[in-house]
UniProtKB/TrEMBL annotation:
Superkingdom per UniProt: Eukaryota
InterPro entries: ICAM_VCAM, Ig-like_dom, Ig-like_dom_sf, Ig-like_fold
Coiled coil regions, renumbered to chain: none
Occurrences of domain Ig-like (ranges): 156-260
Signal sequence interval, chain numbering: 1-21
Keywords associated with the record: Signal
Organism in which the protein naturally occurs: Ilyodon furcidens (goldbreast splitfin)
Protein name, per record: Ig-like domain-containing protein
Length: 317
């Protein structure tokens, strides 16, 4: 029985020691490398299904809704405004399935309404690249939009003309470069330059810089070949800012100064036969001038005979 009691005590001691803290046996703290990340408790949650409306329609039914029901109308369809002037445009919708209507531009500013129309306006156009967009949002989460083409223009500040790498008189049948420079104009892709000699148009040129919207300077060059008939002529050029039917009724036009030219040419050589005929004509004229009637005196008679003999000797030679 004692042996069994000791055995029981021996068994209970480690059990009690492992259940209560002992001042004699304190376990060493584990090393950091031995610390494992606690595993999350296995919690069974119901699966969530989330869906967000996309502004881009992909189904055939939504495409039909966008094209048929979302009828956005912008007036004017193209807006042309001079830099610094006010501008405005109206956007309206005829569909009832798109309750919200709005404007947004490239600068991030936006305006919305629940009405059937909305006006976009600026008091003073101070931006060169503006892209206003009218949009409408449907009840089903889709939307549609329409861009307003907008042209901001500035008439040419100055137009000048000169000969490139040449000064002084020109020679007939030689080629020369006539240069027309247009300063501070926008958009330069809408500029048409016409060269003139007097009131005769010589040619038209346009810029290849069609994407630039801010004011720039550009030169246009035309090759000319003057003739002696062009001596004293005046050359000049004209820059017209052609902005289309939506632009001003009278397109902005700026002209250059007049450039008066002097043309030098070689005199036409005279053929020997023509020279011989001219000499005969001159001699015959002199003979008639000095011819006197018969009996007017001995001196005049001798002079007449001398001239006749001179003419005869000239014809023989």
């Amino acid at each position: 029985m004692c042996e069994a009691g000791w055995t029981l005590s021996l068994v209970l001691i480690p059990l009690i020691g492992s259940a209560t803290s002992s001042p004699f046996f304190s376990p060493a703290p584990p090393f950091l490398s031995q610390i494992s990340t606690p595993s999350p408790l296995p919690i069974n949650l119901p699966a969530l299904s989330l869906s967000f409306p996309s502004p881009t329609f992909t189904g055939s039914s939504t495409e039909s809704m966008t094209r048929v029901e979302c009828n956005l109308k912008i007036s004017p369809s193209i807006l042309v405004v001079r830099f610094g002037d006010p501008a405005k445009a109206n956007c309206s919708k005829s569909s009832t399935g798109f309750p919200m209507l709005g404007w947004v531009n490239t600068q991030g500013a936006s305006d919305t309404t629940m009405e059937s129309f909305l006006v976009w306006s600026v008091d003073k156009m101070t931006e060169w690249a503006v892209n206003p967009i009218c949009f409408a949002t449907s009840d089903q989460g889709g939307d549609c939009s329409s861009n307003l083409p907008l042209i901001v223009y500035k008439p040419p500040k100055k137009v000048s003309i000169q000969f490139l790498n040449h000064t002084g008189p020109m020679f007939e049948r030689h080629q020369y470069s006539l240069q027309c420079t247009v300063q501070d104009v926008a958009p330069v892709g809408n500029v048409i330059v016409t060269f003139y000699r007097g009131q005769t148009p010589l040619g038209q040129l346009r810029s290849n810089w069609t994407t630039e919207k801010t004011p720039v300077n550009e030169s246009f060059t035309l090759i000319i070949t003057p003739f002696k008939e062009d001596n004293g002529s005046q050359y000049w050029c004209e820059a017209k800012l052609e902005l289309g039917p939506a632009g001003p009724q009278h397109p902005p036009v700026e002209t250059s100064q007049n450039l008066t030219v002097m043309v030098l040419w070689n005199p036409e050589p005279i053929h020997p036969t023509k020279l011989h005929m001219k000499e005969e004509k001159h001699l015959d004229s002199e003979l008639k001038t000095n011819q006197q009637p018969l009996g007017s005196g001995t001196t005049n008679s001798y002079r007449g005979c001398f001239l006749w003999f001179a003419l005869l000797a000239h014809l023989i030679n």
